[in-house]
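Treating backbone geometry as a discrete language has practical consequences that deserve illustration. No coordinates are needed to read the tokens, only the vocabulary itself. For completeness, the protein is quoted in full, as a sequence line and a line of structure tokens:
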Amino acid sequence: MHILVTAASKHGATDEVADAIARRIEASGITVDRLAPADVTSVADYDAVVVGSAVYILQWMPEAHDFMERFKDELPAGRVWAFSVGMNGVPKHSRQDGSRVGPLLTHVKCRDLHTFAGRYKPSLLSLRERSVARLAGVVEGDFRDWEAVDQWADEIIEALKA
């Protein structure tokens, strides 16, 4: 079995989540290619695809959006998993609704769309980005839950091996 893990990341947090997913799946004995969305020229050789993006202003990054548009008719039916990273600073009692990433995935049938909390490190952001984050009340810190990332990767592995 051969799968692709691809993700669009602006400041590295989403790439780190994608890398963790790829490592976990690869450790189970499945062959994994970990590529940036722009580097993917075909999905024909893949049995499954995991695609992710950082979320900014409730939208996936253009690179992830472009990937989904380019390959929407070629993605393996029933074997696409998608994840979003962001919406950090949302209080823990509030639902982090993955469907709030806009209409991007409505034309691609995904087995699952999972949302992971992200990281907010002001020193990595532009003045404009920091201003928007401050206005939105985003809390500084790394909110990524690595156990949740591993658990989701394990669910993908289980589905692929079924």
Observations:
- Confidence is low (pLDDT under 50) at residues 95-100.
- The helical segments are 13-27, 62-71, 127-136, 146-161.
